[in-house]
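Support request, priority: normal
Reporter: lab tech (M.K.)
Component: structure prediction queue

Hi team, I submitted a job for LacI family transcriptional regulator from Rhizobium leguminosarum yesterday, and the status page still shows it as pending. I've pasted the exact input below so you can check whether something in the sequence is tripping the parser. The sequence length should be 334 residues. Please let me know if I need to resubmit or if it's stuck on your end.
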Amino acid sequence: MDSTVRLSDVAKRAEVGVGTVSRVLNGSAKVSAATRQKVRAIIDELGYVPNEVARSLAANRTRLVAAIIPVIGYTQHAEILQGMADVLHKHDMMLMIGASGYSDQVELQAVKAFLARRPDAIYITGVRHTEAVRTILQQSGIPVVEGSNLTDSPIDAVVGYSNFDASVDLTRLLIARGYRRVWHVTVTKDFNDRIDDRLAGFRWVTSTGTEVEADVIRCENSFDGGAEAVRLALASNINVEALTFATDVMAVGGLLECQRRGINVPEQLAIAGFDDLPIAASTNPSLTTVKVDRVGLGRRAAEIIVNRLQGNHTYSQIVDVGFQVVERDSTRRP
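Reply from support: The job had stalled in the queue. We restarted it manually and it finished. Here are the results:
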C-alpha cells in the first residue's frame, strides 16, 4: 500500500492550494506569516518530504555538493568536511561524500557517479588526478575545488598548503637543532601527491648543501608501521639521530616502540610527525609535527563554491591556507 505523503495531501489538510504549499517550500515572500506557519505545521505533522529531484530539475540546482576524499575514517579529511558543512548548511546545501581509497580508478568512478546525480559543485582531495578525471571535471560546467595541496594549474580552484614547503621547514628545524643523521619514513602503499611532496621536500633539503646523512624508510601508514620504522633504523649500521614521519599515525607508532625498547626520545632518537592530530600534543613526549587549519581549509573551499554558485567569480583561483611547524618535546634537545 502506497502511504507516501504528497504535496496535495499537505494542501488539503492545510486548506490551501498546491501552489501555496509550493511557495512556502520555496521560501516565497508572497505568503502570509500565518499561512506559512500553518503549512509548516502540517508538513511536520504529516512528515512530508519534498521531491527534491523534481524541484532540482525545475531550478537546475540540487543544493548538493559532492566531496571525494581518500578514506572516510581519517581525522584530517573529517575536519575538512566539517568546515565545508559549517558553511554549506548556512546556505541550505548538503554534502554527499565518496571515498576513492587512494585508487585512480575508484576516483574516476566516484566522479562519474556523482556527476550523474547533478551536484551543484565538487570538492576533491589532492591535485594530481588522471587525465580522464581532469577532463570530465573540466567539462562538467560546475565549480570544482581541489584541496589539501597546491598546484599552479588547478582544474578550477584549489585550497590547500604546500606539503613540500612544510616538509622542508620541518627538516630544517631538525638540522637547526643539531641532528645530522636524519631519516624520513614514508608509506609503502596509498601513495598520493601530499605524501610524495613531503618526501620530495625532505630529499631536497638533505641534498642541498647540508652535511646530513639521510635515507628513506618505507612502512605501512599505521602504528605498527611506525614501530617497524624504528626497528629498521635501530638495526642499521648508522646511528640514526632523528626520524621524520610522513604522518602522525606512524610517528606515534614510533614513539610507542621507543617506549617499549627503553629508548629516550629525543635524547637517543628524535621523532617528528605531520598533521598535528589531537593525539600529538598528548603523547609523552609530546610530538613535533606540522599543523594545518583543516576546518578553515574546508570553510574556504565551501565559500568559493557558494560564491561561484551566486555568480561571484572574483575569488582567487589558488588559496594557500598555510601551515605551522609545531616544535614539541619529541625533538627539543635539553
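Residues 75-90 form the longest helix (16 residues). The longest strand covers residues 181-187. Let us know if anything else looks off. Ticket resolved.
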